[in-house]
């Protein structure tokens, strides 16, 4: 009986010690990539700048036995509603045969975790394992923290792909200030099609080559800024459209003076821009 108890304690004590360690790491005093990742996953390898899933494979970096690699993309603090928050946006890559999958068609997914400053520590407030996915070769192309209005914030995600010499790009905006982190808008931002030397048919449509720029405009008296999309190129796509935030998405604002309004400075919308 005594021997059985000792064996049970031997098996249980390490698990209890790990649980205590993870509980302590879950409320970091400082907020950076390492502390934020450990707060969520308990384990983080600073040398490889990531966490493996299953998490138990991280400490000895057993990537051959992992199914995912999670790496921090955006880590920062910001103030919302007078409260200091911590943001961790992480990229999840599929691991196959001991390495991240880098097939051209493979997308990555993005997780979001928001913390709230509680006294001397940052406490987890809300999060979502997958708020969006995109990219090529198993990676997202770009993710930026963005100011979307007065006390309103989001992630501006971009991705591009190539097919038979033609290039296509898209951007989408994920809200950090709406419940559930909804995608407010998805917009194709550029098309650059490779044209054949000779059209296959006499009445073949022209090759497309156009861009869509996306800018934020001040909306006096409103919490959310307006989003303007302006098209240039061939064939023309209809000029300029302004969108307003309504019930967790952007909808056409139907504003005749949309094109004439001044855009917010880039570094005001993207405070982390270099």
List the helices and strands and how they pair.
Layout: H1 2-25, H2 33-41, E1 51-53, E2 68-80, E3 83-96, E4 99-100, E5 108-118, E6 121-134, E7 142-149, E8 152-163, E9 166-175, E10 183-192, E11 209-217, E12 226-234, E13 240-245, E14 250-252, H3 266-269
Overall form? flat
Strand content: over 45%
Main sheet attributes: strand count, strand direction, barrel closure: 8 strands, antiparallel
Mean pLDDT: 88
Total helices: the number is: 3
Helical amount among residues, as a percent range? 10-25%
Q: How far from one another are the termini?
A: 66 Å
Element order: H for helix, E for strand: HHEEEEEEEEEEEEEEH
Structural class given helices, strands, pairing? mainly beta
Number of domains: 2
Secondary structure tally: strands: 14
Oligomer: single chain
Stretches where pLDDT is under 50 for at least 5 consecutive residues are none
Written overview of the protein:
The protein has 274 residues and is mainly beta. The protein folds into 2 domains: 21-140, no CATH class; 142-274, no CATH class. 14% of the residues lie in helices and 45% in strands. The chain has 3 helices and 14 strands. It has helices spanning 2-25, 33-41, 266-269, and strands spanning 51-53, 68-80, 83-96, 99-100, 108-118, 121-134, 142-149, 152-163, 166-175, 183-192, 209-217, 226-234, 240-245, 250-252. An 8-stranded antiparallel sheet has the order 7-8-9-10-11-12-13-14. Strands 1, 2, 3, 4, 5 and 6 form a 6-stranded antiparallel sheet that branches. The radius of gyration is 23 Å and the shape is flat.
